[in-house]
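Run: sequence + zinc ion -> complex structure.
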Amino acid sequence: MLIPRFIPRILVAFSLLIPVSILAQNSNVSASAGSAAAAEPTKEAPRLEHFDPDLADKTLNPCDDFYKYACHKWLAGNPVPPDQIYWNTGSGLELWSDTILRETLEASSNNDPKRTPLQQQIGDYWAACMDEGGIEAAGLKPLRPELDRIAALESKKEITLEIAHLHHIFPGAWEGTRDNQTDSPLFGFTGQQDYDDASTVVAQFDQGGLSLPNRDYYIKTDKESVKTIKKYRAHLRKMFMLTGETEAQARGDANTVIDLETAMARAQMDNIKRRDPKNIDNKMSLAQVRELAPFIDLDAYLRAVNAPASDHFLVTTPDFFRAEEKLLEKHPLDQWKTYMRWQVIHRAAPYLTKAVADEDFDFFARTLAGQQQQLPRWRRCTHSADHDLGEALGQAYVDRAFPPESKARTLEMVHAVEQALHNDIDSANWMTPATRDQAIIKLKGIEVKIGYPSHWRDYSRVHITRDSYLANVEQASSFEFERWVAKIGRPVDRSEWTMTPPTINAYYDPQLNTINFPAGILQPPYFDKDKDDSVNYGGIGMVIGHEIIHGFDDQGRKFDAHGNLRDWWTAEDAKQYEARGKCISDQYTQEVPDAGPGVKQNGLLTQGEDTADNGGIHLALYALEAELKRQGKSLDDKGPDGWTYRQRFFLSYSYSWCANIRPEVARLVVTTDPHSLPIFRIDNVVSNMPEFAQAFGCKAGQKMVRANACRVW
Ligand SMILES: [Zn+2]
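>> structure
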């Protein structure tokens, strides 16, 4: 995932392109109501992309720019459609998956009394979401009770209870604490595995409060950032006016929101500092948390969210809460009411009328990500259903799209890639035997999860009706928030997934020490059952390697086989590691012209993902080599089409990353996301590899042969 920066639940997603933070925003966007009549479902049959080595542009030199060599022809024929923010070789798969989900949802949406409870839930969710006429007729009525609650607050003491309520009902609010520290009203709260004892779950408070993608958007003073804030101010004004305020009122309220959010942004820890788990592992007693921010009525909050007793509390960023205390003291109740009213309008916008949803889309998707038009309604509703009832909907997806043979072959590949890392660690002469032994123990401790969970989540408490899309979203959101909070004090459930089965992504969870590959990504072009091993190791094999390496990247290496934050490195080996890691982070600190003039990538932010890319491709190549050897072949033998297996491997790797990206998105990724852009995920990686130079006969001095090549794994 999903998602980006050092996150408390530290899920390290493979992320095909778009980070979880943006996905969350985009699912917000993708759930937006709107373009009612215009957005007819596409009748086009979804097309899966299959690797073809002849897509390579042989008029170009692979040793000059391999990404271009492998992707140029595909990119030229696949511009970004108006309703997308990027278009890559996996985009056809997204449409294909959405179509399967839609068929399931539609089949369940008739009002047949014989439906199973699960069919009733997903079917009625779909019906309510697709009912644009009903949503228009209801207008802002579904929002009224929420706005009235806020209007009725009489003292600052009551703010805490209202925040607890907001944390319950809005999607993204609870996710703030897991995926994106910026995204929960005022602050985040959840159940979280303890860093030092991963077998226990404790209560965690996290920084939060923002609406823009991260703190930089509020703080930076370059021309582009100033322009964005100006547009955000206009958006706030329009949204307040849509709920009935006069222009003068709306103008004042917009300023209030920006002032408060900017102050919270300043108090937040930045995403590079958050990447070091030590910086957010702050244990406190209940009394200490109470003392930190007395304005937040801690006991009232914990009662309101039904939090079980916690052995101790984690407060990721105590300084943030100290600053928030001062803000709560300084600003009058009316300003906080405005802030909370904004939170309600903003978070509900995608589920409301066309006018409101369109304005939400206009700023958060068009301005921030360059998306020209909204996805058709049916795709927004499938994404929303996947987000809210993913393991209910995912069961049918697995039945239809994920045969047992796919699971078996993936598992074989995982074992082959794990063996490759075993060999790599054994031969890593920069590590002492003591550290190597520990690394092997960690590797052997990795649990593999493929396709879907061993038991499905029980959604029976989620009350879904055909009457109100917003009410359904609030129901599902409360369920999810409560599910996380209820984990506090209970044994860890190792079988849970944090991605749904149709998700086209993968992740490593350092506190569970698991690698997770949803059924959604085990499809073409990443995994293609009709293709040979060289293609599949270049595609999904690299993804597998990438996730395994996350257990040994600059963050992952700080956790042991049991998921505890424990240093198992000798001082000398750690020093060696850091020198190798610095080579990578220096190399990826680079100008990114595609993202706009002067935009620069910070290699410290992307170091974990870049390490996983560089290591993952090595492991996949070694695994392929071993597999070919078993078949009596070698990497440099020619396949049926005249390309060697080594060449096909690298071409398939690059092919699975070909992506046209809007410049707005490129900027968003470069400035907020721990993943590098696709071009660097190919060119930086292969130029570090003599194995690549060998494939295409590249010589020293050519761009794809680095004089100072980096290598961690
Ligand atoms: Zn990753």
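>> summary
Residues 603-630 form the longest helix (28 residues). The longest strand covers residues 187-193.
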